[in-house]
Amino acid sequence: MVFSLDLMLHFYMKNRRRIAIIARDRQEEALRMAIGLAILNDSVDIYIIDKELQETEKNTMNLEMIEAMRIKIFTNLKEKSGISYLSTEEIAKKILEYDHVIPY
């Protein structure tokens, strides 16, 4: 059976889930899971809520991978370099667009 590239791309995009990772307390685990889900062909965005991203060795390593994989990361805290700012209200509206929301 021969599949065309168009058919394979259609199947690939149709079955791709949109997942929001909400990270507050278990940030290291949230970043690690976001990477794993993205590897499985899911579209993943990360939201760091109400707390600064902890500067740990694991977070630094995961952030490098997140950047390489072009996973979007947002925060509701202003003035965080390297992380896009969205207000809590904007985040609440965006969350409605996802197939799955996973809190950490």
Keywords:
single chain; 104 residues; alpha/beta; Hypothetical Protein Ychn, Chain: A; five-stranded parallel β-sheet; 4 helices
How does this model look, in words?
With 104 residues, this protein is α/β, with parallel strands linked by helices. The protein has a single domain (16-103), classed as DsrEFH-like (Hypothetical Protein Ychn, Chain: A, 3-Layer(aba) Sandwich). 41% of the residues lie in helices and 21% in strands. It has 4 helices and 5 strands; from the N terminus they run H-E-H-E-H-E-E-H-E. Strands 4-3-2-1-5 form a 5-stranded parallel beta sheet, covered by helices on one side. Helix 2 runs parallel beside helix 3. It is globular and about 45 Å long. The N and C termini lie far apart (43 Å).
Write the layout of secondary structure elements.
Layout: H1 5-14, E1 18-23, H2 27-39, E2 43-48, H3 57-68, E3 72-75, E4 84-85, H4 88-95, E5 100-103
Parallel strand pairs: 1-2, 1-5, 2-3, 3-4
